[in-house]
Amino acid sequence: MDWGMKNRMSQLIQPDGHCFFMPIDHGYFQGPTTCLEKPGETIAPLLPYCDALFVTRGVLRSSLNPESSKPIILRVSGGTSVIGKDLANEGITTSIDEILRLNACAVGISIFVGSDYERESLLNLSELVNQCEDYGIPVMAVTAVGKELEKRDARYLGLCCRIAAELGARVVKTYWCEDFDQVTNGCPVPVVMAGGPKCETELEVFEFVYDGLQKGAIGVNLGRNVWQNPYPTAMAKALRSVIHENKTAGEAFELFNSEKNK
């Protein structure tokens, strides 16, 4: 691995081998998202607890301070919306020149395995890898399934992750599922867990994060379960304790409760 690639990966994945990425890119397909109407204000108190931000170039420029930000994973796919015909019909939205100009540590792109646009999204990933490898920029593939929740099983997610790795992704973001070790065991690159829909309780979030880490994930890419929580800072601090301090789900829940009452 080239020095530049190693350097960028080391900014994202901490010395303990784990990571806490926080996505605030939701507006690229769903517009002003609840609690993310003003992303700069939402994310400010959470920055001390996450390791990197997953964000579009527009919000990066308009809402984040370049002098005190975290490492950036730049969302570079898009072109569809929640009111359009098919969210899977994405393209690459951001040039390699722009990626370099914004000093991104990595880029992220969605793939839609099993959709009508499977081929296009996988070729988008391949093209992005071709461009970014020349400059030592890691690509994170996001295994998107949209509203098709029944697809979130180990067999399907394992297929998605392995294909993404085979096409050159350096990191894969996917959903936690039962038998999650089947997903990580079949993926030769680091796997991070997505949050997806909000869980019913904070404890449920800590439980799936803890389980996924025990079964091979290196960390999380969680947004809505943090900044849509009534106590986002307490949530971020408790999640960090699971990811970087080896706390159990129960211990994290205790920490959350103690922090939210301060």
Question: What keyword list fits this structure?
Answer:
alpha/beta; eight-stranded parallel barrel; 42% helix; globular; TIM Barrel
Tally the helices: what do you get? 12
- What level of helicity do the residues show? 40-55%
User: How many structural domains?
Assistant: 1
Order of helices and strands: HEHHEHEEEHEHEHEHEHEHHH
The count of β-strands is: 10
Average predicted local confidence, pLDDT: 94
What does it look like?
This protein is α/β, with parallel strands linked by helices. It has a single domain, classed as Aldolase class I (TIM Barrel), CATH 3.20.20. Helix content is 42%, strand content 15%. The chain has helices spanning 3-12, 27-30, 39-43, 57-63, 96-101, 118-133, 154-166, 180-185, 202-214, 224-227, 232-245, 249-260; strands spanning 19-23, 52-55, 72-75, 77-78, 91-92, 106-111, 139-143, 171-175, 191-194, 219-221. The strands form two sheets. Strands 1-2-3-6-7-8-9-10 form an eight-stranded parallel barrel, surrounded by six helices. Helix 11 (232-245) runs antiparallel to helix 12. It is globular, with a radius of gyration of 17 Å. The N and C termini lie far apart (45 Å). The model has no long low-confidence stretch (mean pLDDT 94).
Give a brief rundown of this model.
By secondary structure, the chain is an alpha/beta fold. It has helices at residues 3-12, 27-30, 39-43, 57-63, 96-101, 118-133, 154-166, 180-185, 202-214, 224-227, 232-245, 249-260, and strands spanning 19-23, 52-55, 72-75, 77-78, 91-92, 106-111, 139-143, 171-175, 191-194, 219-221.
